[in-house]
């Protein structure tokens, strides 16, 4: 049986991926709960170790990660090769290359983590959706009851972009096909995806029309089509 493991974003939840059930048939879809099943305070490499221990290398496994979940997927793929046949990275950053950038991002994420611990939830959601990266994307208003604020703060401070090593080099050595998806209305991540060295003949870099940073939910039909084409599953 084919297994697809899906990792959600920072303010995401497993149910975000439920639309895939209608578009990808004949596979086991595993929607990972990053905040229930893992402890962000242990760091990115610890996540990769724990997540990889859940995967049977004897089965046909595929991986999808969005945004923060994409970075966690990248860490898993580079630290524990051989578990997955193909991987999809959606609106995913491979890591900052300069120490100064990383230090600045750590400070920024630390300040944001404090806001997630203290500010009124609705104000947080308004500010979150107002970020330029989400300007041309589906607006999502999350229910506070579904989240643990301490874990969100830990995710920002321990799974944040500043805490991640630059995986650009290790990525060039990955031996499986990878698909990089970004929305055409998200120019920053389109450029990031274009900078990735594709080291396999089946690897692709795709920009989806009528989509911003939240590609899977901005244009679900096109997203599912790309997955089916890349994974070579029957429609």
Rounded to the nearest angstrom, the radius of gyration is 17 Å
Which CATH C-level class of the largest domain is it? Alpha Beta
Tell me about the largest β-sheet: 6 strands, parallel
Domain module tally: 2
Strand share of the residues?
Answer: 5-15%
Number of helices: 9
What is this structure's SSE topology?
Layout: E1 2-7, E2 28-32, H1 44-52, E3 60-66, H2 68-79, E4 86-90, H3 99-118, H4 121-129, H5 149-158, H6 168-171, E5 178-183, H7 187-194, E6 204-208, H8 215-218, H9 220-231
Parallel strand pairs: 1-2, 1-3, 3-4, 4-5, 5-6
Helix pairs in contact: 1-2, 3-5
Characterise the protein shown here.
The protein has 235 residues and is of the alpha/beta class. Helices cover 37% and strands 14% of the residues. The chain has a 6-stranded parallel sheet with strand order 2-1-3-4-5-6, with helices on both faces. α1 (44-52) crosses α2 (68-79) and α3 runs antiparallel to α5 (149-158). The longest helix is centred in the middle third of the chain and has 20 residues, at 99-118.
Please give a quick description of this structure.
This protein is of the alpha/beta class. The protein contains 9 helices and 6 strands; from the N terminus they run ββαβαβααααβαβαα.
């Amino acid at each position: 049986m084919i297994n697809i493991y899906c990792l959600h974003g920072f303010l995401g939840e497993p149910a975000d991926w439920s639309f895939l059930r209608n578009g990808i048939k004949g596979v086991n879809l595993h929607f990972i709960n990053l905040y229930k099943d893992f402890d962000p305070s242990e760091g990115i490499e610890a996540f990769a170790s724990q997540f990889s221990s859940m995967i049977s290398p004897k089965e046909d496994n595929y991986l999808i990660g969005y945004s923060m979940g994409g970075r966690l997927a990248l860490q898993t793929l580079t630290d524990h090769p051989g578990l997955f046949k193909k991987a999809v990275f959606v609106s995913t950053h491979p890591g900052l290359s300069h120490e100064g950038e990383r230090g600045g991002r750590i400070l920024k994420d630390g300040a944001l983590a404090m806001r997630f611990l203290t500010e009124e939830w609705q104000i947080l959601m308004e500010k979150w959706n107002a970020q330029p990266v989400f300007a041309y994307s589906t607006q999502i208003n999350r229910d506070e009851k579904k989240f643990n604020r301490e874990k969100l703060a830990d995710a920002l401070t321990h799974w944040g972009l500043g805490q991640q090593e630059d995986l650009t080099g290790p990525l060039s050595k990955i031996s499986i096909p990878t698909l990089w998806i970004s929305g055409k209305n998200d120019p920053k991540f389109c450029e990031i995806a274009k900078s990735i060295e594709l080291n396999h003949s089946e690897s692709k870099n795709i920009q989806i029309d009528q989509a911003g940073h939240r590609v899977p939910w901005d244009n679900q039909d096109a997203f599912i089509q790309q997955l089916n084409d890349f994974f070579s599953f029957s429609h």
